[in-house]
Specification:
Layout: E1 5-10, H1 17-29, E2 34-39, H2 49-54, E3 59-61, H3 69-72, H4 74-84, E4 88-92, H5 94-97, H6 100-103, E5 111-115, H7 119-125, H8 130-141, E6 148-151, H9 154-162, E7 169-172, H10 179-186, E8 202-206, H11 215-223, H12 227-230, E9 233-237, H13 243-252, E10 259-263, H14 269-272, E11 277-280, H15 289-297, E12 301-304, E13 321-323, H16 328-340, H17 342-358, H18 361-378
Parallel strand pairs: 1-2, 1-4, 2-3, 4-5, 5-6, 6-7, 8-9, 8-11, 9-10, 11-12, 12-13
Helix pairs in contact: 1-18, 11-16, 15-17
């Protein structure tokens, strides 16, 4: 029997958390669904393209325009969808979610969109078409052009209902954690250059080196820390536009030789599992995948309590520590406490791993399957 087809629209298959979640979802649902991917903002397959190729998932590319690129993709996207005749179209990230439902209006093809981040913060930092594009997306959310919107956290689901008055069905499905795969990856050896770094306790962070992640806050917190922090090194796993700026700041703060920029790593768990503490200093998130995976790989987590995401992962004082966003002193105190209190680290590690096991990839895949099945049935 032929499997139903999901036509998935993503910006890229680069190293972001949303892309990884999507590829994990495909791997978990390939026995029940066929997938076809179209990329709207990339010219190559990215780092996850090889994995999709092994899964037998074809990837298409829309033309990459310089001006009004989001709007100019609507016609070729519609033509491609009509040609492939999918049972469901799945759109990831708000830059696609605003145009995909419009592009497919009147085709009868059900659209499921996935919101991965705090929209209020995303709108605040968007500088491409801030007025027109934000109004367009608000209009799309207040129509039934999308069948379902899957929010990556309960906080984002509430935001969509209350702040944006979204009319489609809203379903909250957090990112799943592959505990077994993370445990296996954590056992892989580190490269030789990492050896000297881990001769001291390490505070590790994983994520794009961008303004959203506010790694400057983490560096400042480490610089003002007490005895435990002053004896620790910092490892930043990731790449991004602020790398040079963060390196300069580390020098200015007197952290030269104590901050190691590891760059992008396909396996960050080998790094985080060996760290004394995992830290997340973001100003906003949707559902931070790095933090969720660190609950399985490390279990000794300190995070800023962003408006959405972290409080649905970490129970403050029991499975980790939460601090107010942007609070340098509070972050320094929490890191110092986690580093110096062995009993707290053991308690948090035990409870964090229990949370990770209860939020497995397989369990989340079943929830996604139910959403896709319901959307497919709505076409009949």
């Amino acid at each position: 029997m032929k499997k139903p087809l999901v036509f998935a629209v993503l910006c890229s298959l680069g190293g972001g958390g949303a892309e990884k979640v999507f590829v994990d979802l495909v791997a978990a649902l390939r026995d029940r669904w066929d997938f076809r991917v179209v990329l709207t903002a990339a010219r190559d397959r990215g780092i996850y393209g090889d994995r999709l190729e092994k899964l037998g998932v074809p990837v298409d590319f829309l033309p990459v325009y310089r001006r009004f690129s989001r709007f100019r993709k609507m016609i070729p996207l519609r033509r491609l969808a009509l040609r492939t005749k999918p049972d469901v179209v799945l759109s990831f990230l708000w830059t696609n979610n605003a145009v995909v439902p419009l592009a497919l209006a009147g085709t009868g093809i059900p659209v499921v969109t996935s919101e991965r981040n705090d929209l209020r913060s995303e709108f605040a930092k968007d500088d491409l078409h801030p007025g027109l594009y934000h109004r367009l997306y608000r209009f799309v959310l207040r129509t039934n052009l999308a069948r379902t919107v899957v929010a990556v956290s309960g906080g984002i689901a509430d935001e969509l209902r209350n702040d944006f008055r979204a009319k489609p069905e809203i379903v909250a499905i957090g990112n799943g954690v592959d505990v077994g795969k993370i445990a296996e990856a954590a056992r892989e050896p580190l490269p030789p250059e990492a050896g000297p770094v881990f001769e001291k306790p390490v505070v590790a962070a994983v994520g794009r080196l961008s303004a959203q992640k506010n790694l400057s806050l983490l560096l400042r917190a480490v610089a003002r820390g007490g005895p435990a922090l002053s004896g620790a090194n910092v490892v930043l796993v990731g790449q991004g536009p602020l790398e040079a700026e963060l390196k300069r700041e580390a020098e200015e703060l007197g952290l030269s030789g104590r901050v190691f920029f590891a760059g992008f790593r396909k396996n960050p768990h080998a790094w985080t599992s060996r760290a004394a503490v995992f830290a997340m200093s973001s100003d906003f998130e949707g559902f931070p995948n790095a933090l969720a995976e660190a609950m399985a790989a490390n279990g000794r987590c300190v995070s800023t309590d962003c408006p959405t995401g972290p409080s649905e992962i970490v129970e403050d004082g029991k499975s980790g520590l939460l601090v107010p966003p942007g609070d340098e002193a509070a972050l320094a105190a929490a890191l110092e406490r986690m580093l110096s209190d062995e009993g707290l680290r053991e308690t948090c590690a035990r409870n964090a791993k229990a949370w990770a096991e209860a939020n497995s990839v397989g369990r989340k895949a079943e929830l996604w399957n139910a959403v896709l099945e319901k959307a497919k049935e709505s076409r009949k």
